[in-house]
Predict the structure.
Amino acid sequence: AQSVSQHNHHVILSEAASLELGCNYSYGGTVNLFWYVQYPGQHLQLLLKYFSGDPLVKGIKGFEAEFIKSKFSFNLRKPSVQWSDTAEYFCAAAVGRTSYDKVIFGPGTSLSVIP
Amino acid sequence: EAQVTQNPRYLITVTGKKLTVTCSQNMNHEYMSWYRQDPGLGLRQIYYSMNVEVTDKGDVPEGYKVSRKEKRNFPLILESPSPNQTSLYFCASSARLAGIVEQYFGPGTRLTVT
């Protein structure tokens, strides 16, 4: 079955620490991959996306992610987190036989950044 | 301003009473989708639509109906709501190339079924 898993349910970091959130997907075909962020009380916003090409993609707010096809992974990274990065982070995969329209989200990782 | 709107934002209803949650986007997007968000489960796709009159089931379509008669609107219909449909619902839209490009999410509708 198609699925997206995220390694951590809740991560707590101090400001300026480095961040890496793990994401793995289970799907045999081509996928488009996304990371979304949900700040408290707000709706989801796109951080970055990967369709093809360079497996290292850069997004907004200093986030980046690396697609490793052999590991079915798309991990999110940020070298130095800020208190304002406190949020819920969702990895998602768009899959399909002829077009990538069905979207599968991971369960989310809650990030708390301590000042 | 580019946006996805949902109405109502909050709804408390009783089991079996039909309801509709509206969703509208002003970006001329082909793709629209409905999700429910539950603690520990993330977002799960209910239905999606690739264009007018074209819809398909997501992972959790049971108990829900949708229609796409106009490009801008994608209402979610619960014919006979049950307590297990209590959840936070998000509508989203996206332009499409070979598939979705980037989804823009609405503000959410918190539904409670008693």
Summary: Chain A has a mean pLDDT of 92. The first strand of chain A starts at residue 3 and ends at 6.
